[in-house]
Amino acid sequence: MNVLALNWKKRCPFFEKSAILEVGNTSIFHYLISNFLFMNININFTGMESTEAIKEYVTEKVESLTTFFEGIESADIDVGMKSHHHLKGNVHYAEFKLQIPGRPSLYVVKESDDLYKAIDKVRDHMKVELEKVKGKMNQIDREELRDIKGYDPS
Question: What domain of life (predicted)?
Fold first, then answer.
């Protein structure tokens, strides 16, 4: 079993051992992860009407997050307008909740006077959060590889 498949098996306990079959240097498991598992996106509107333009914009922004982190299971998105807010005028908000296998959910909320700005702010902040998670996972991978190779830093 290659190291990539071993690491995914540790992070994704819901996959069975039979899903990891090696073909040359690439496991079928990795192929399935990268090509056939799609993110489930749920979009809710609060205090405003849903439009196709907003749905498409939100979907585009959420799907762009997969370039920073593969394997996002689902995204629960809530966009809307707050009715009781201490600021005057229209206050729009966007909140993203992403579910990653083997990790706690990532949750980000941002507000702005424009809905599209709020969506952009949330997407940018979520990108930073995903990069943090990816960095932690890569650190764990490096430590495991050092243990496998018998590397001793002292």
Answer: Bacteria
